[in-house]
Amino acid sequence: MHKIEIEAQIDLLSENKRLAEKNREFLRKKGIKAINIMGAIGSGKTLLIEKTIDSLPEIKFGVILGDVICRADFERVRKHDARVEPINTGKECHLDAHLISHVIEGFDGVDIILIENVGNLVCPVDFDLGEDYRVVMVSVTEGDDVVEKHPEIFRLADVIIINKISLADAVEADIDKMERDARRINGRALILKTDLRDGRGLNDWLNFVRRLKQK
Amino acid sequence: MSFASVIVENALRIAEENKAKKVKSLTVVVGELLLINPDQLEFCFNVASHGTILENSKLNIEVAKADISCVNCGKKYDEVVYLCDECGGFVSVKGGKEMILSKIEIEN
After folding, report:
1. Which site among A11, A12, A16, A184 would you substitute to test the B interface, given the most B Cβ atoms closer than 10 Å to its Cβ?
2. How far is A110 from chain B (nearest CA, A)?
3. A195 with A42: CB under 8 angstroms?
């Protein structure tokens, strides 16, 4: 019996990176923009998608919904004017480029795909899906220290949405602290403060989406 | 668990290519910004490797630091910040997100 030491030097995350680039190339050729929306359970991701579709009828949306069991969100979003693909991830806590590659072929003729990632602020960070923009959504009800506790997801975001601002006083959350924390780790992200229930700040988000269509 | 599975998948492939009967140990380099808890990774690895020639092998986990430093004054940081506390310059973050299967020790 021989003992052998093998210098492997294999990049274990390269397979997802390769597939993500393939997705990106596929979408680019079709002229489709993709937005990866991440955030905790209950932060408002699904409502953001519903409001976006309803407010911008001039844009053709596709929606990919990732959840452990996706049926509830699928039933909600399918009532709106968009093509919707659910992905049940089962025990997996994030979407990955491979899961996305199975469904993007069905989005011909769509302008923008909104991808709702599985609800958490940890696992989705490391899995590029081939998206053009990363959006991270937090709500004040998660506590005003949520940004400083999860720096990595905020560092890599293009848009940071602080939602449910009308509840800030009730839950004693300091919105300015949340914004300061976000700015401290990410100076280039667009930071939006919204309340999707009463509509505050929604227009800032819609302007961002409108500009994407024109790009 | 998905990180553990990808380690097992790749290690098994290399072990088979080298006609291994048993794998003694593996070394994995994990970037600190992946925020992986080594104890958890080891536990998941033990579960994922069960029933394969990797079972009972030793998983060595080396944490690779990210290079977080101010592009203006060079001050180093242990955590991710955007602007330097000292001089207000931009702070660049390099590395810390890798996951490399660097070594495998096998018996054949």
Report:
1. A12
2. 31
3. no
Instruction: List chain B domain ranges.
Output: 2-107
Burial class (CB in 10 A: 0-12, 13-18, 19+), A132: middle
Q: How far is CA B101 from CA A9, A49, A133, B32, B98, in A?
A: 5, 39, 30, 15, 10
- Total number of residues shown for chain A: 215
Q: Do B108 and A4 lie within an 8 Å CB cutoff? A: yes
Domains and CATH numbers, chain A: 14-214 (3.40.50.300)
pTM, full prediction: 0.86
Task: Say whether A12 and B101 touch across the interface (CB within 8 A).
Answer: yes
| HSE of A121, CA atoms in CB hemisphere, 13 A | 22
pLDDT tens profile A21-40:
999 999 999 999 999 999 99
Q: Is the Cβ–Cβ distance between A128 and A79 less than 8 Å?
A: no
**Closest CB to B100 among A4, A5, A9:** A9
Residue B1, chain A, CB below 8 Å: the answer is: yes
What is the pLDDT confidence band of residue A163, given thresholds at 50, 70 and 90?
very high
Domain B2-107 has CATH 3.30.2320.80: yes
Interface ipTM > 0.85: no
pLDDT in tens, A107-136: 999 999 999 999 999 889 989 999 999 999
Does residue A78 register a pLDDT over 80?
yes
Among A109, A60, A118, which Cα is nearest to A88's?
Answer: A118
| Strand pairing class (A133-139; A159-163) | parallel
